[in-house]
Specification:
- Helices cover 64% and strands 4% of the residues.
- The protein has 205 residues and is mainly alpha-helical.
- The protein has one domain.
- A two-stranded antiparallel sheet has the order 1-2.
- Helix 3 (31-44) crosses helix 4 (61-73), helix 5 packs antiparallel against helix 7 (117-127) and helix 5 packs parallel to helix 9.
- The chain is globular, with a radius of gyration of 20 Å.
Length: 205
């Protein structure tokens, strides 16, 4: 069942890829995209790597990611849009993983699993017109959405066990499908990772 679920998710990612691919080359830069790309070029050529001479009012992670692609592809429009394009594709499986942590059912049939939370959530992200439209841009929104979802998924992973895993409470092991005392799930022994992601989210996106 897990193998079938993963192949379905791979299919959604491939469909999302083809739906977003045309947007990389379809449109010229918006004014804000051109501004962000020019900042990335200053970083790529090492003219102003810290952007101290520019009135930057956005988190700089996007500009540094764009600068990584410029030496490989040159300062072209689609190269500046690749970080958002990749983030939009990664958002599809990330949403499914996040939804799996939130889903409490332990056993569902193959037919009902198609309409269950994780795959439906991933499908909504893959086929959302707004997500498709913004995926092939050089704006900061796709990266912001990706890291926000990653922060929430990391927080959920530290508090909720993934479906199908064995949970241990008071030295008694049982599956999530079994009847269990109505107590909250134990928190992760290493909560620093989600806390770090959430705290750094507003500084580096």
């Amino acid at each position: 069942m897990m193998k079938w679920w993963r192949w379905t998710l791979v299919g959604l990612v491939l469909l999302a890829f083809f739906l977003r691919l045309r947007g990389l080359f379809a449109n010229t830069f918006h004014a804000d995209e051109a501004l962000f790309a020019s900042w990335a070029r200053l970083i790529a050529v090492w003219r102003d790597p810290l952007l101290v001479t520019q009135p930057v009012d956005k988190p700089p992670l996007l500009f540094y990611l764009q600068a990584l692609f410029y030496p490989l592809q040159g300062p072209v429009e689609w190269a500046a849009r690749l970080p958002d394009f990749i983030a939009s594709l990664l958002l599809v499986p990330l949403t499914a993983v996040f939804a799996r942590y939130l889903e409490r059912e332990s056993q569902v049939s193959q037919i009902s699993q198609i309409f269950s939370g994780p795959l439906m959530a991933a499908a909504f992200v893959a086929f959302s017109p707004l997500t498709i439209q913004f995926s092939a841009t050089a704006f900061t929104d796709p990266l912001l959405t990706f890291w926000l979802t990653a922060s929430l998924a990391a927080l959920a992973a530290s508090c909720l066990p993934m479906r199908g895993k064995t949970v241990r409470r008071d030295d008694v092991s049982f599956d999530q499908g079994d009847t269990a005392p109505s107590r909250p799930y134990p928190s992760s022994p290493h909560p620093s990772l989600p806390h770090l992601l959430i705290s750094s989210f507003f500084f580096f996106l």
